[in-house]
Amino acid sequence: MRIDRAEAICGVSPLVLKRLLSRESFSTPTAMAYLKLSEPQASETMIALMREWWIEHVRTTAHVDHWQSTDQGNRLTATRLIKRFPVREGRAIVDHVIAEAREINGDPDSSCRIAEILLFGSVLTGADDDAGDIDLVVKVARRQLPKAELRRLQEAEKAQMPSWLDFFQRQFRVESELLRRIKKVSGRIGLHPESDIASTGAPFRQVYAFDLASETEAPVDPEIRTMCKEAREEHPSLEAAKSVLPEFSLRATWPVAPNEEARLKHVDQSELDLMQHLWVRGADIAAIAARTGRPSETVQAYLASRANVGLPSAFRFDASLRATVSQALRPRAGYMKLNVELRPGQKPLVDTAYYERNPEQPYLARIRQLAPRDLIVSGRPDLLPLIEPVHELAWQWLERMRPYFKGLGLSVGTGFFPDQGPESLDHPKPVDFRPLVLPLYELLRAQLPIDLERYAIYEHRLVIELGQPLRIDHWVGEPAYGKAKRQRVLKADASFAWEALTALLEKYRVELEGGELLTVTAFGGEIAGADER
Predict the structure, then answer these.
(1) What does pTM read for this prediction?
(2) What is the band of 242 on the pLDDT scale with cuts at 50, 70, 90?
(3) What phi and psi values does residue 361 have, to the nearest 5 degrees?
(4) How far is CA 164 from CA 151, 159, 161, 167, 527, in A?
(5) Of 155, 159, 143, which Cα lies nearest the Cα of 108?
(6) What is the pLDDT averaged over residues 510-526?
(7) Whether 324 contacts 515, CB under 8 Å
């Protein structure tokens, strides 16, 4: 099976689908978490995968569909996903393979030789000027030497083999090592038995030949040939199999909103996915409320809000979080506040809230996220369609920025008033904060008391506010618990770190003027961890 990792399967990334199908069985709500899909798109995707024979329907229990992988799906889980490349690159790699075979065959101490190499597949045919793999058949044969000479070489090879190899492994060790050398030429090489050519009837061409009798390279046959395709037992056609697939009825509309105002109270995403799936598959509001343990008016209000969900906003990265998420802003009457936090060794946090006028008042709706589908939703369901697309872009922005903050903490906050809309995307490259790691941790070490106890180091941190003016504070304790002390670090006491910060601000001056509060943190726990290692 050849799968290009860049080509979607029924709209799903092959890598994501491979993870899902690695489960023995799964329900549609479980698939929603893996595929990051909402209803009815989730059920439509499951049906499409079933019709393309990747999954099969096992049962429907209490309006929940259950699935399992088919043989084709199982083959996908065992398949290496590839990235396609130009045919000319593949043919250049074949030249390197031939050079490696010549080097192998020039070794006087080896008891085996590369006798023949056959090329087939997309690198040979090159129909679309791109290839997914370099398909080779490499034949290894024993040298035609006098028995005493051959035995001497074999005994010398066995003496070099690991002691833990069993009898059969020793018999094929030399051949395996030679094939491994060929495979190491490129990760794009796929080695096949000759039966793969015979079973598929694929065209092939000899690209290397070696005469064992004369111990010299032989002329290759330039003709592209085919073998007679092996007769195989016929299986029912896919079309015939499709004719017995079960039919599914999906609700096409969402319920109307209840007359009374309803509020969600700390509901996680898996529960919301279940509500959606139950409704789409025909359950009524009362049954969904009983299944989830939520009030009927709350279930109805949430499901009604799904009618106002638009198409996902395309993610276009900008160094400014504010500019990135502003692309998803919709007309609204309230104030939206967004906070993103990242800390070494901990889950990231994206917190999006909606207020009637300003963040000094209680929020009306809120989403807090710690993992791709680990969301906690609270507040009025009818306001969720306003903040969900903004929240999703913020999460994607954070995922893109994580490598550029390795070892440091990040906190970014911003907000939008009702009259503020999308902003221009002018800075497609991330701000790289990694040059700050060494100077900031050296400064933090210098700030630590000499007689500090081993575990007390976790109480210390440096907090840098990248604004005007630039400010560095040394905190002891956890500010969130109200038991922290803060002391400002003067420029004269932090020359090395100050120079690094100034250089960063100068390099990314325009990118960091995005109208958001950005804070970088160096944690004492990272020093303690490094010392223990």
Answers:
(1) 0.72
(2) low
(3) -95, 165
(4) 22, 12, 9, 10, 42
(5) 143
(6) 84
(7) no
Place of tokens 């907090």: 463
Rounded to whole angstroms, the Cα distance separating 97 from 91 reads 10
Spatial separation of the C-alpha atoms in residues 274 and 407, rounded to whole Å: 37
Say what the pLDDT of residue 435 is. 93
Note the helical H segments in 231-335. 238-242, 269-280, 285-292, 296-305, 321-326
Residue matched to tokens 């969130």: 480
SS3 497: helix
Q: Which two tokens stand for residue 392?
A: 């999703």
Residue 146's contacts (CB-CB under 8 Å, 6 or more residues apart) are none
Amino acid letter for position 440: L
Q: Which of 459, 461, 400 is nearest to 427 (CA)?
A: 400
Across the chain, mean pLDDT equals: 88
Evaluate whether 257 touches 300 at the Cβ level (below 8 Å).
Answer: yes
50, 55, 61, 62 alpha-carbon torsion, rounded to 10°: -60
Looking at residues 96-116, what average pLDDT do you find? 96
**Cis peptide before 435, with omega less than 30 degrees from 0?**
no
Average pLDDT over residues 454-465: 82
167: amino acid identity, one letter: F
Strand bridging mode 134-142 / 189-191: parallel
Cα 460 to Cα 306, 456, 532: the distances in Å are 45, 8, 17
Tokens of 212: 């064992």
Residue 235, pLDDT score: 46
Q: What does residue 61 show for φ and ψ, rounded to 5 degrees?
A: -120, 120
Measured in whole angstroms, how far is the alpha carbon of residue 242 from the centre of its chain? 32
In SS3 terms, 152-199 reads as HHHHHHHHCCCCCCCHHHHHCHHHHHHHHHHHCCCCCEEECCCHHHHH
The predicted structure's pLDDT at residue 16: 93
Going by pLDDT thresholds of 50, 70 and 90, the confidence category of residue 233 is very low
Tokens of 58: 């096992």
C-alpha dihedral (155, 156, 161, 164), degrees to nearest 10: 40
Residue-wise pLDDT for 480-498, tens only, equals 666 778 889 998 888 899 9
Residue 452: what pLDDT? Answer: 66
Judge whether 424 and 323 are in contact, CB under 8 Å.
yes
Measured from the Cβ of residue 431, the count of other Cβ atoms closer than 10 Å reads 18
Q: How many other C-beta atoms lie within 10 A of the C-beta of residue 492? A: 7
The Cα–Cα gap between 73 and 69 comes to 5
| Arithmetic mean of pLDDT, 95-118 | 96
Burial group, residue 489, by CB count within 10 angstroms (0-12, 13-18, 19+): buried
How much is the pLDDT for 361?
Answer: 87
Residue owning tokens 């440091």 = 408
